[in-house]
User: What shape does this take?
Amino acid sequence: MNENPYFCNMLYTNNDIRKFLKGSLFVTVSLSILYACANPGTPTGGPIDVTPPKVIGSTPTENAIGNQKGKIIINFDEYIKLDKPNEKVVVSPPQLQQPEIKTIGKKISINLLDSLKSNTTYTIDFSDAIQDNNEGNPMGNYTFTFSTGAAIDTMEVSGTVLNAADLEPIKGILVGLHSNLNDSAFSKTPFDRVGRTDSRGHFVIKGIARGKYHIYALADADQNFFFSQKSEQLAFNNDLIIPTCNQQTRQDTAWIDSITVDTIIPKPYTHFMPDNIILRAFKENVNRHSLKKKERLVPQKFTLTFSAPNKDLPKIRGLNFNEKDAFIIDTDNKKDSITYWVKDSVNYKKDTLSLALSYMYTDSLNNLVPRTDTLNLISKQKTLTKQIEQKKKKKGEVPKIESLPMQNHIPQEMDVYDYIYFDFEEPIRSVNKNAIHLKEKVDSLYKDIPYQFERDSVNIRRYNLLYNWSPEKEYSIEIDSAAFVGQYGLVSDKVKQSFKIHALKDYGDIYFNISGNICPNAFIELLDATGKVVRKMPLRDHRASFYFLAAGKYGARLINDRNGNGLWDTGDYDLKIQPEEVYYYPQIINLKVMWKIEENWNVDSTPLDKQKPEEMKKQKPDQDKRNKGNYNNRSNDRRY
Assistant: This one.
């Protein structure tokens, strides 16, 4: 049989193709298997590293004695990182030269640049800054210790630093000990031992030798470890700190898993004391006395602003006018901003008022001394007013008759305890009380009723109308035009407004019976849930009553007003004056309408650092790192 060459060639070609395809398929499958082995893809789960780093060695060894080298290397069992080392790592004794602290793979390198002190215990407190590099598991509180002498000092003291004004925990403030018990040590020499507060305001100072100490807190702005700037926040304790310790036993729990207890094991430990030190931090009143600003925006008045409150008003001597009975003085209790309303038109129409101003001034030696300045006060608005008047005359416009600017507080729905008041932009020359009519609705008619009307005791440009309102009653106030005449001749417009008083069923009452360390001038501030002051009441026979409160959540704080000025006052280190005490009622009160809640409050029964309710604290504690071994949600947290 003759073979067709064309057919043979085609057959050969097809056979080759089949062999090629089979080979290609084999190679493709083989490569896919190899790729799959090399790349397992996305797993459905697996164990997650929840183990924190462990120290496996160091140079020098931990708790080494006689060490004279400032270079320390700490070795770990895995790669590590440091979280906020400048904030969390504290070296004690404090280092004037910032230590060099860095991570190198599985190591931490510390280089102390200050010369090491002889016979001294050194502690490097890392707090919870050490974490593993992959999952960020914190090691927990870790302190590396060594000594340049023949022994390790092991005493510790701990406590909390609070803001004296509102008992807020203070994060990151320095706390230090001085074995030098002279008062001047705090302002002249660095601390012997230091610690730093965490987000709860808590501190621990370690490596302390037995002895007696003074303790301080300091927001050390210039990082020299002593109180060198009056603007730095500080705290001091009047009592000596004497570190002690004893042996105690605590119950440790061993767990089989997250919900099953294996066993409870008693373990001995060393209890260091004192462990409940409370430091109340404050800033001193350190503003230097000087004339900060002077301005005369309109001809009729000028304002002098000082950098600090004045005990007494400054004295004015007119240079181109007679200063006697020339002004109405408008100021607050602090007397740091004073407005002078010029009475006589002959004076305020002067382009320039020239005067000699005598006041107290802080000199270069920080002493308060008398000083006299010559001031030439030119009105900024007078020239502008003339330009506007000239333009209006050219256009033929009729000048608008101005009325006395007045702001009224007359809410349409008024609280039982509220009152009406009127605020004016200038002092009032006269009031026609007969032009003010307060009426109560009886049946369908409004009848005139008597009321009390007076100028405010603090703000000379405010007038108050007081009346003992009846719940659910309707009232009306009518004020005739020209009832008020301003200092410069402007008169008020007429006013007419009706309003209704809330019903008693809309309110609740809170009563406090107070005991403990309180002074005769103490007062209580009722607070809303955010800490804003709602009401303020002085104590009467150890009791404060808050009537007619809207339903809601309330807190309370008590201020021991030692000087009776109605304010909280700060402290002074040089004079050894502590800031006035502040106490918080340790619970939030949830008041409902028509409730009457009576609380017995001993201000000393709860430790100061536990008094302020957590809901009211603005400084929240840092969240503890969550356990990443949540196997119920593996798809969101995998380890490859």
The longest strand covers residues 261-273. Residues 1-22, 31-38, 625-640 have pLDDT under 50 and may be disordered. DSSP finds five helices and 44 strands in the chain.
